[in-house]
Write a structure and sequence with these properties.
The protein is mainly beta and 110 residues long. 0% of the residues lie in helices and 63% in strands. The chain contains no helices and six strands. It is globular, with a radius of gyration of 15 Å.
Length: 110
């Protein structure tokens, strides 16, 4: 499905967000998220794994999200949908035709 989804499969409304870092008076920074708009997307489960995180086992669920092409999407951004958060790891054109943009994402369950 990811390389050539039917247009009807783009039925999930997701919000695309980018990180915005703001410096604080202590020399650190605070990251907030700014909306880049809403997108219609197809989302499919791509795999799951258990990883060790901070001395404990943590589950990671990964998904493949397909949407219409956009030039402003890159790794480090995130998608949100119904209280769920998906961190964008990779954004690429799976068919190299400019017709679709595929995002490999990791659901942030913390």
């Amino acid at each position: 499905m990811s390389a050539n989804p039917e247009i009807g499969r783009l039925r999930h409304r997701m919000t695309l967000e980018e990180p915005v870092a703001t410096g604080d008076s202590g020399g650190g920074r605070t990251v907030t998220w700014s909306s880049r708009g809403e997108v219609w997307a197809a989302i499919e489960h791509a795999g799951a794994a258990e990883v060790r995180f901070a001395g404990r086992i943590d589950g990671r669920v990964t998904h493949r999200v397909t949407l219409r092409p956009r030039a402003d999407v890159s790794g480090g951004m995130r998608l949100t949908m119904d209280g769920r958060v998906f961190r964008v790891l990779v954004a690429h054109d799976p068919t190299e035709t400019g017709r679709w943009l595929e995002l490999l994402v990791e659901e942030d369950g913390r």
